[in-house]
UniProtKB/TrEMBL annotation:
GO (cellular component) term, any one: Prp19 complex
Function field: Involved in pre-mRNA splicing as component of the spliceosome.
Compositional bias ranges of the Low complexity kind: 26-35
Name of the protein this chain belongs to: Pre-mRNA-splicing factor SYF2
Binding partners and assembly: May be part of a spliceosome complex.
Similarity remark: Belongs to the SYF2 family.
Residue numbers spanned by region Disordered: 1-38
One Pfam family named in its UniProt record: SYF2
InterPro entries: mRNA_splic_SYF2 (IPR013260)
One annotated GO biological process: mRNA splicing, via spliceosome
């Protein structure tokens, strides 16, 4: 099929109408002038059609190039771009507040509506929800993430160590660093304070379960008692009759 059927049809109609008018027009200067005028009008229309076709091809090529650029970008480019623009706006706002002698956090809170504040608070609570105990690995991972979020690096000490050790500060598989690092007194004190804080919090949340002296003793140690309690919770209603028969000695 022809790439531009409308253009070819227009050209064909122009050519046929031109031939018919040349046949109808008789000889004479007036008829020749009219025919020449009509011919110029048709050429002008043809040039306009040609320019429209050229503009359409040009716009199509530009759109193909832009689409190719968008496809080569990372999938989350729009989110990253929006994030960078937002960070630039925040930096500009901080500079403006510093120039006026105002506190940026206070100015930001004055511009936040109550609905946005409640929504962000709910989102913050959902960020690390406590789903309860599932296994020891999950509990240990949750504890590790909580502790690492509290770490505040000492950049000044890091710069001093980098000047002191140079490339040796970044060990490789061939590096021997055993016994070469001596922690500072401030670091040891910080670690001790953090451990004491963990112990205090652990004692606050741990509670001793009440012990029932009249309950049946069907365990040999504390760990076996916990296991029996879990088994009773899940399978007690299915094994109640078997347990009674074993206790009475009437089990078959």
């Amino acid at each position: 099929p022809a790439p531009f059927p409308g253009l070819l049809a227009e050209c064909g109609s122009l050519q046929s109408s031109e031939e018919e008018e040349e046949e109808e027009a008789g000889p004479g200067p007036a008829a020749a002038a009219a025919a020449e005028q009509r011919r110029e009008e048709r050429l002008r229309r043809f040039r306009e059609l040609h320019m429209k076709r050229y503009e359409a091809c040009k716009l199509n090529s530009q759109e193909v190039v832009e689409e190719d650029k968008r496809l080569k970008l990372p999938p989350n480019w729009e989110a990253k771009k929006a994030r960078l623009e937002w960070e630039l706006q925040v930096q500009e706002k901080k500079k403006e507040c510093a120039a006026r002698g105002e506190d940026y956090e206070r100015v930001k809170l004055l511009e936040i509506s109550a609905e946005d504040a409640e929504r962000w608070e709910r989102k913050k609570k959902r960020k690390n929800p406590d789903l309860g105990f599932s296994d020891y690995a999950a509990a240990q991972l949750r504890q590790y993430q909580r502790l690492t979020r509290q770490i505040k690096p000492d950049l000044e000490q890091y710069e001093k160590l980098k000047e002191q050790y140079g490339e040796a500060l970044y060990p490789t598989s061939d590096s021997l660093l055993h016994g070469s690092h001596v922690p500072s007194k401030e670091g040891v004190d910080r670690m001790v304070a953090d451990l004491e804080k963990q112990i205090e919090k652990r004692e606050k949340y741990s509670r001793r379960r009440p012990y029932n002296d009249d309950a049946d003793i069907d365990y040999i140690n504390e760990r076996n008692a916990k296991f029996n309690q879990k088994a009773e919770r899940f399978y007690g209603k299915y094994t109640a009759e078997i347990k009674q028969n074993l206790e009475r000695g009437t089990a078959v």
